[in-house]
Write a structure and sequence with these properties.
365 residues; alpha+beta; Butyryl-Coa Dehydrogenase, subunit A, domain 1; Butyryl-CoA Dehydrogenase, subunit A, domain 2; Butyryl-CoA Dehydrogenase, subunit A, domain 3; four-stranded mixed sheet; four-stranded antiparallel sheet; 12 helices; binds flavin-adenine dinucleotide
């Protein structure tokens, strides 16, 4: 069992880096809805953006437990780990299912910071949580796929060179199960934007740089298909468990930040944050051992998101009117941590998952 005291050197190193980016830095970015360029640059130079990339490709070769600690420390310092978590979990699809040629072509450059892989294109207006209902298509024509369709809430597209895209390659009526016939592609955004791909920013409650995407005859070379055609849903699911664990870690960081700010009234919330932390560590350890961990990843995400939201409310209450004033950073963190009640999976759907897959109750939908 890994305890929170473990990985002390890693925690100290991340804290040290985060000290260079005080609350005023994040507050300013929040007001301008700007991307944290300087912070991402510093994270890249420290090697953390290539945390999960194996050493042979120039990365740090870290476990998911270690990567999750980096996120926890960023949010615990008052910062926002969004770009970092995006690169780390998005990477998993390429790491686990990419060909050797793809890994050689991209991983060393990503590890050096020459390429960013921080965009993940799954959600659609008519298919949010119900991923297998997506209608974006990729149709093979010779040595390329032609992509048409629409995606929504796709974050960091303007700040990433590459995007993992999920699209339907076999029409729904030709597959036995809805989860079949979906494929994953690595889209080079530098080529696609302006060549059929249009990007429309969406302003949300917090500083997230999210967008609506329209694909109109966007060409993706065949060599950018990741893994086998039609198997993409399985690859994406793998990555989603990692994402849930990483987001649980962010919520633990948020929860601790709120409690530190509101110690006197935050004691109950403290107990919930620490309990959630145990589940996050259990889930990350299972993931690192390659064991099935859907139940633990989902439960960790739910417990941690609820605990950080509880702590956020306690902190705002404790601060009274000041909790609502931008200079105290509590209202900003409050808005940021609210997202995790909804995305990347809402709390009620985690309850449905646990009811069906852990408790054996009938499917509720
Ligand atoms: C700021 C932000 C950034 C995001 N970034 C990305 C990104 O980079 N890439 C990406 O692909 N997506 C991204 N998302 C999308 C996010 O993952 C989705 O918003 C999330 O999966 C929920 O989908 P939805 O919004 O379509 O809601 P829906 O799936 O429509 O859900 C709406 C409500 O209905 C409930 N519900 C849905 N289905 C059922 C059911 N069967 N039974 C019971 N209740 C149900 C849900 O629990 C929820 O409360 C982002 C979203 C936000 C807000």
């Amino acid at each position: 069992m890994v305890h929170t005291e473990a990985h002390g050197d890693l925690r100290l190193a991340v804290r040290e880096l985060c000290r260079r980016f005080p609350a005023s830095y994040w507050r300013e970015l929040d007001q301008q809805r700007a991307y944290p360029e300087a912070f991402v640059q510093a994270m890249t130079e420290a090697g953390y953006l290539g945390a999960l990339i194996p050493k042979e490709y120039g990365g740090l070769g870290m476990s998911l437990v270690e990567a999750s600690i980096i996120l926890e420390e960023i949010n615990g310092s008052g910062g926002v780990a969004g770009p970092y978590h995006a690169q780390v979990y998005t990477m998993g699809t390429l790491l686990r299912h990419g060909s050797e040629a793809q890994k050689q072509a991209y991983l060393p450059k990503i590890a050096r910071g020459e390429l960013r892989l921080q965009a993940f294109g799954v959600t659609e207006p008519e298919a949010g949580t119900d991923t297998t209902s997506i209608t974006t298509t990729a149709v093979r024509e010779g040595n390329r796929y032609i992509v048409n369709g629409r995606k929504i809430f796709i974050s960091r597209v303007q700040h990433s060179d590459l995007m993992i895209l999920l699209a339907r390659t076999t029409p729904l009526e030709q597959v036995k199960k809805k989860s079949q016939g979906l494929s994953v592609f690595l889209v080079d955004l530098r080529e696609a934007v302006g060549n059929g791909l249009t990007v429309k920013p969406i302003r949300v409650i917090m500083n997230n740089n999210t967008n609506e995407l329209h694909f109109n005859q966007v060409a993706v070379p065949v060599e950018n298909l990741i893994g086998a055609e039609g198997e993409g849903f399985r690859y994406i699911l793998d990555g989603m468990n990692a994402e849930r664990i990483l987001i649980a870690a962010e919520c633990i960081g948020d929860g601790r930040w709120f409690i530190e700010r509101a110690t006197q009234r935050g004691k109950q919330a403290h107990i919930h944050v620490e309990a959630a932390n145990l589940m996050r560590l259990r889930a990350a350890e299972r993931f690192d051992r390659g064991e099935p961990g859907g139940a633990e990843a989902n439960m960790a995400k739910l417990l941690a998101a609820d605990a950080s939201w509880e702590a956020a409310n306690v902190a705002i209450q404790t601060y009274g009117g000041y909790g609502l004033a931008a200079d105290y950073d509590i209202e900003r963190k409050f808005r940021e941590t609210r997202l995790y009640q909804v995305a990347p999976i809402s709390t009620n759907l985690i309850l449905s998952y646990v009811a069906e897959h852990v408790l054996g109750l009938p499917r509720s939908f």
